[in-house]
Amino acid sequence: MNRVVAWFCIFLSFILLTLPIVDAQDDSDGDGYNDEDDAYPNNSEAWSDSDGDGYADQPGLNISDDCPNSEGYSYRHMNGCYDTDSDGIPDTLDDDIDGDGITNDLELASSTALKKYDIFDLNDVPPDSDWDTIPDVLDDDDDNDGWSDQIELDRGCDTLDESVTPFTMYGGNTGWFYVSGTGLVAEYSDDGIEISLSWLISALSSELIIPIGLVPIYLGIWYFRFRTFSRFDAELKDIDDLTKLHDFENEISKAMRARKLRAHHGIILRNVIELKEDELENSSIAHIQEVDSEE
């Protein structure tokens, strides 16, 4: 009997030693998911992360994935969504998806039928010579020197060189803007009046050459009329006879018809003639009365 008991104990020990060992299954946070299957073993409200980006599939948590079916690492405004430039802002809310400094809208606006800029590619960026984040094709001032490209092109100036402007293209400083209340300034001013060698040369080589060429003629005519007026005015002071005064008035009328006098000069002279005429008539009457009284 003892031998049977001994063999039974040996057999039982063998069975116990050869049976597979079953590990105890732990659930640290008590959410019903064993720790080895739980992506968040210490958070009872989260247990899975389908896309493996570190954000939980379960909603309503501060670690919830706003894009649970796509791996993404955004963390500003939305969690776990695509973030091409890794700035934390999801692509759907990012106005510069590739982080090249130029907004998506400007990249698309810079595209043409032959060249489409990729808003997801950091290396596919429109030219921006002055690094002001406005592509050259949309920038009115490519070199950021204060002068618009159109003006610089009209003057034959380099639109991509900040150190070359219509005021410096001929060496040194060759121009200014007159700004009311400020005076002369060397920087471009929308409110100023330009005085420069560049403007003069441009004007002489454009349709303005005709009116500019007429300026000396206008000045000559003005000077001739002014001298004529001055001569008549001086002669008028020496006239002391009504007959001569009437002849002088006729001469002035002829000069005005021949446009040797400006209209306002003629009016001034006629006013003086009227005063002179009254003066001479009064003098003549006084003289006659004096003679009569003597007789």
Strands ordered across the widest β-sheet: 2-1-3
Regions with little confidence, pLDDT below 50 for 5+ residues? none
Structural class: mainly alpha
Distance between the termini: 200 Å
How many DSSP-defined strands?
3
Helix content: 25-40%
**What is the overall number of helices?**
7
Order of helices and strands: HHHEEEHHHH
List keywords for this structure.
single chain, 295 residues, mainly alpha, three-stranded antiparallel beta sheet, 7 helices, 3 strands, 39% helix, 4% strand
Spell out the blueprint of helices and strands.
Elements: H1 2-18, H2 104-110, H3 149-155, E1 175-179, E2 183-185, E3 193-196, H4 197-204, H5 209-237, H6 242-257, H7 263-294
Helix pairs in contact: 5-7, 6-7
Structure characterization notes:
17% of the residues are buried. Helix content is 39%, strand content 4%. Among the domains are: 149-194, no CATH class; 209-294. It has seven helices and three strands; from the N terminus they run αααβββαααα. It is mainly alpha-helical. A hairpin with a 3-residue loop joins strand 1 and strand 2 (183-185). A three-stranded antiparallel β-sheet has the order 2-1-3. The longest helix is centred in the C-terminal third of the chain and has 32 residues, at 263-294.
Task: Put the structure in a nutshell.
The chain has helices at residues 2-18, 104-110, 149-155, 197-204, 209-237, 242-257, 263-294; strands spanning 175-179, 183-185, 193-196.
